[in-house]
Design brief:
This protein is mainly α. The chain binds protoporphyrin IX containing FE (HEM).
């Protein structure tokens, strides 16, 4: 099934709302990820030696924002081109960072669940099955592109 204008609009709409409260939502995102997979703590430089999830850590916020923003960009590309195209150097970088950190397929599923929970929290009453579907599809395609690059480099 192709990605519709409506789906693209739902992803963008959510991101516009989330931006307003992105510091708190970044924290919420990592809280969810660690609730789903406590072992993921050891993967992140800014979490592994911490008792609590650090409030206001720029690296934490940066990773959360990248995931949301790139999913949003993926949605735009899916609608425009029918596929996710990450520029060569960015994709290579994403591939090597995650490969080096020991990230595997299953981690992407955990992060996906964290993303969906955070979007749900962020948009409140605007949350819908359709919005969930649009975010899921865009995230899956982005994750597949990163994983393909990782497999190429491995
Ligand atoms: C680093 C993006 C999924 C774990 C990074 C970086 C980017 C990025 C851009 C470089 C550092 C930064 O700018 O923050 C993404 C995107 C993802 C994704 C777009 C999915 C669509 C994941 C998943 C995991 C993960 C599933 C594992 C649970 C990490 C780790 C680092 C990293 C451990 C190194 C950060 C550090 O320890 O300081 N990611 N990532 N990422 N990513 Fe991801």
């Amino acid at each position: 099934m192709s990605f519709s204008e409506k789906q693209e609009a739902l992803v963008k709409e959510a991101w516009e709302i989330m931006k307003e409260d992105i510091t708190a939502l970044s924290l919420y995102f990592f809280t969810q990820v660690l609730e789903i997979a406590p072992a993921a703590k050891g993967l992140f430089s800014f979490l592994k030696d911490e008792e609590e999830i650090p409030l206001d850590n720029p690296k934490l916020k940066s990773h959360a924002v990248k995931v949301f923003k790139m999913t949003c960009e993926a949605a735009i590309q899916l609608r425009e081109k029918g596929e996710v195209v990450v520029s060569g150097s960015t994709l290579k970088y994403l591939g090597s960072v995650h490969l080096q950190k020991g990230i595997v397929d299953a981690h992407f599923a955990v992060v996906k669940e964290g993303v969906l929970r955070t979007v749900e929290k962020g948009v409140g009453e605007k949350w819908s099955e359709e919005m969930k579907g649009a975010w899921s599809e865009a995230y899956d395609q982005l994750a597949a592109a990163i994983l393909a690059e990782m497999n190429k480099e491995a």
